[in-house]
Amino acid sequence: MTHGSVLARFGHALSDPTRTEILLSLMQAPGYPAELADRLAVSRQSLSNHLACLRGCGLVVAVPEGRRVRYELADARLRHALADLMAVVLAVDPEHCAAAGQSGCC
């Protein structure tokens, strides 16, 4: 696995707003699918699909607890990495990013 492929998987995971919100929620504390779905106001099926993607990317793990499954970040260092990413201030050049004034630019 190359550094580029690791960053590409991370970028893919963050490219969807729901997956980003899941990661931000799991930064605070582990969560259960039903609670995460309610908190993020998404259907349980949609949340399940996003969690599967995040598991596939290696960013979250499912921890069985009896009949329930708890989700958490796969590595404690992800908490720090996400916090560092949020602390970065990006200067967007409107000339090269037509949607600079809209959310979801670039």
From TrEMBL:
One of its GO terms (molecular function) is lead ion binding. InterPro entries: ArsR-like_HTH, HTH_ArsR_DNA-bd_dom, HTH_Metal-responsive_Reg, WH-like_DNA-bd_sf, WH_DNA-bd_sf. NCBIfam families: HTH_metalloreg. Gene3D superfamilies: Winged helix-like DNA-binding domain superfamily/Winged helix DNA-binding domain. This is Winged helix-turn-helix transcriptional regulator. GO terms for biological process: response to cadmium ion; response to lead ion. It comes from Nakamurella leprariae. Residues 1-93 form the HTH arsR-type domain.
